[in-house]
Design brief:
alpha+beta, Nuclear Transport Factor 2, Chain: A, 6 strands, 36% strand
Length: 138
């Protein structure tokens, strides 16, 4: 009798435990940014949901669609831009949303850095939607 109760207690504690720091939205986006800067398309794509949607703010759906399209697009982008680097200049956290003001450098043929605000929606430890707000210069 004690053993089944003990197993039930352990199981309920595991379910009730808060997500680890590595699973919170901020950490998921950080892993994505680190993989982007390493130009590691496999690690980068691993942070995204299969049906991820990318938007130009507020609602223009971008190509590519889904994780497979994202992976192919960024594999080509990483290949064409060996100095590509992004850094988060500012960050706001709000529940499942992570909002960054990012600076992107190393784009082939572009001398000035690209400034962009990016809104990530993270659910179930994966990036589900992304909105890009580009500056007038970018």
């Amino acid at each position: 009798m004690i053993r089944p109760l003990f197993i039930l207690l352990i199981a309920s504690l595991l379910v009730a435990a808060p997500p680890s720091r590595s699973q919170n939205p901020e950490s998921v986006v950080l892993r994505q940014l680190e993989a982007y800067n390493a130009r590691d398309v496999e690690a980068f794509a691993a942070t995204y949901a299969e049906d991820v949607e990318l938007y130009d703010f507020p609602a223009a759906l971008r190509e590519p669609k889904g994780k497979a399209g994202l992976k192919a697009h960024y594999a080509q982008r990483f290949k064409e831009n060996p100095e590509l680097h992004a850094s988060a200049k500012d960050q706001i956290l709000s529940g499942p949303y992570v909002i960054h003001r990012e600076k992107v450098t190393g784009l082939a043929g572009q001398k000035e850095a690209l400034e962009v605000v990016v809104i990530y929606l993270v659910q179930d430890r994966l990036i589900r939607k992304v909105w890009f707000l580009k500056s007038e210069k970018g």
